[in-house]
Amino acid sequence: MTLAIIGGVLWVLGIIALLTGVFPADAALAVADRVWPILLFVVAVTIVAELASKAGLFDVVAARLATLARGRTALLWVLVVALATVATAFLSLDTTAVLLTPVVVSMAVARRLDPLPFAFVTVVLANTASLVLPVSNLTNLLASEALGGGHDPVAFLTLLGPSALIAIAVSVIVLTLVFLRRLPKTYPNAASPEISDRLLLRVAAVVTFALLPLLVVGLEPWMPATAAAVVLVAAFAWRAPRALGIRLVPWSLLVFAGGLFLAVGALEALGIGRITAVLAGSGDDLVSLWQLAGVGALAANGINNLPAYLALESAAGSPARLAALLIGVNAGPIVTPWASLATLLWHDRLVAAGIEVRWSRFVLLGAVIAPLILFLGVLPLVW
C-alpha cells in the first residue's frame, strides 16, 4: 500500500509537469513507448511465478534439493545458493524475494535448521545475482534497451557476466563464512510437501521450465512471459479458478514504477542531468567507473535502486559506464532496507512466517558485501 501511495504522488507530480508544459507531451509519449514492454514483462512473469508457486512447484523443487543433499547441510547450502541464483537470473529478484523466501524458510524449519541463514542467502542473492541477465532486474531491462539492439542476453552477458560472477562469488563466500559454521553438519529427513492437484503441478512445471530458455533466445522478454502467463491462467481457470484474482497483478509496483518514470522524465526536462553528470563524472578509466558505481550504490541506498538508476542513466554514456552503474544500483543496494524493493518484500514474507530479523544484522552484512562487490566487480570492465 505504501508503494502505491508513493507512486500515486509521483503520478500527480508528473501530470502537473505535463499540464504546466514543464514535461513536453512528446517526451512523455517517448517514455511510455520505452517502458510499456518492460512493465508488461514484469506483470507477466509475476503472474507466472505466483501461479507456479500456488501449484506447489517451488515447494517440490526445494524438497527435492533437500532430498538430493541426503542430510548434509553443506550440500543443501550449495543447492539453495544455486536455486536462488537461477530463480533470480531468470525470474527476477522480486520472485526470489517474494516466493522463494517462504519456501526456503519452511524447508529449513521442517528439517530443524535455523531458517535465518537460508533467508539471508535468498535476499542477498536476489540483489547481487540480478546482474546476470536482462530479465533479472527491471534496471537491466532499461539498460539493455539503452544499449540498443534489443534485449540481447548474449551481449548483456558478455558485458556483465564476469562482474555478475564476482558479485555472486563474493556474496556466497561472505555468507558461508558468517552462517554455515553455525549450522549443524547434518539434518533429519522431512515429509514431502502435500500437492492438491498434481496435474496442475505438472503443467506449471512444464510452462515454467519452458519459459526459462525462451527468455534468453533474443525474443522481447514480454512475448514468452505473456504466453506463459496466458497458458497458466487458462490451466488454473480449468482446474482451480478460485486461485485466480486481480491480486495476481502487482498493482502497487506498476503504480510506483509508472509514476517514477513520469516524475524522473519531468526532472530530466528540468535539467537534473546536469547535476548527476557532475556527481557521476565521466570517462571509462577504472577510477571513473568506480566513481559511477559508488554514486549509484549511494543513491540506491539513500532512496531506492530504480530511481537511482533512472536519475543516473544519462550520465552513463558508454557500455562500460552503464555496466558500472548497474553494478552500483543492483549489487550495491543491500545496506539499507529501502534500497531495493525486493528487500522490503523479503522482510514482509519473513514477518508473515513469524521469523524475526534484526535490520542491524542486515546492514552489517551489506556493509561488508557491497563495497567488496563494487571494488572487485568493476575491474573486469577495464580488462
Plain-language structure description:
The chain has one domain. 73% of the residues lie in helices and 0% in strands. It is globular, with a radius of gyration of 21 Å. The model has no long low-confidence stretch (mean pLDDT 88).
By secondary-structure content and strand pairing, the structural class works out as mainly alpha
Low-confidence stretches: none
**What spatial form do the alpha-carbon principal axes imply?**
globular
Compressed to H and E, one letter per element, the order equals HHHHHHHHHHHHHHHHH
Tally of discrete structural domains: 1
Task: Determine the fraction of residues in helical runs and give it as a percent range.
Answer: over 70%
Largest sheet: none
Organism: Microbacterium testaceum (Aureobacterium testaceum)
Main location: membrane
Membrane topology: Multi-pass membrane protein
Protein name: Arsenic transporter
How do the strands and helices of this protein lay out in sequence?
Blueprint: H1 2-19, H2 25-54, H3 57-68, H4 73-91, H5 93-110, H6 115-128, H7 138-147, H8 153-179, H9 198-214, H10 222-239, H11 251-269, H12 272-280, H13 286-302, H14 305-312, H15 319-331, H16 341-352, H17 359-377
Helix pairs in contact: 1-11, 2-7, 2-9, 2-10, 2-11, 3-4, 3-5, 4-5, 4-6, 5-6, 5-16, 6-8, 6-16, 7-15, 8-15, 8-17, 9-10, 11-14, 13-14, 13-15, 14-15, 15-17
